[in-house]
Amino acid sequence: MFVDKVLQQSRVMLVLWGLLLLAALLALVTARWSLAFVAFSTLILAIAPVFLASRFHLKLPLPFLVATTLFTFATVFMGEAFDFYERYWWWDIALHGGSAVGFGLIGFLFVFMLFEGDRYAAPPIAIAFIAFCVAMTVGATWEIFEFLMDQTFGLNMQKSGIRDTMGDLIVDGIGALFAALSGFIFLRGNDSGLMAKLIQQFMEMNKRLYRKSKDRLGK
Length: 219
What we know:
By secondary structure, the chain is mainly α. The chain folds into two domains: 1-86; 89-219, no CATH class. The chain is 76% helix and 0% strand. It contains nine helices and no strands. It is globular and about 55 Å long. The two termini are 22 Å apart.
């Protein structure tokens, strides 16, 4: 199975999953319920992409799976359980930028799958623009979620309010623009660079979704 193959290849993922499970169990033993909840939640979110990919018959590149695991670990576990958002001013900025790049790439791959080969309906610039919009939409939705949590449960997810929100959206925009430009450059025939290689790898692993792009894929 694909899941077994992933688990065999990535020691990083296994180590992180093991640490989360250990932290959750220790938290339960010591009656630290909030830490146990955060640890279990992080573990579930980290494992979810593997099983979702298997459920929808998708093959995800190993770097993507490792990146999502590290991102979830840094966001939920390190950020909330160990308060890294307050300890390090750049923690939130780095995670927002990284997530924007990731969602931008996901948006690009999805839109390109829908319109591949039809340059009249969706030329490279249009696909890149839609990918940018996808990433920005996810970022804006997260800011709305933070606002609702603060207003409903009295949390402080927005930190300094409007300044934190606008700062996050600006970082989201930079990350989304980077991903969109990477996709545009790829469509213009440039396969060099890390982002282009990730796009190429995903397409080659899921050739059934990109049947019109035989000239860009290996046989």
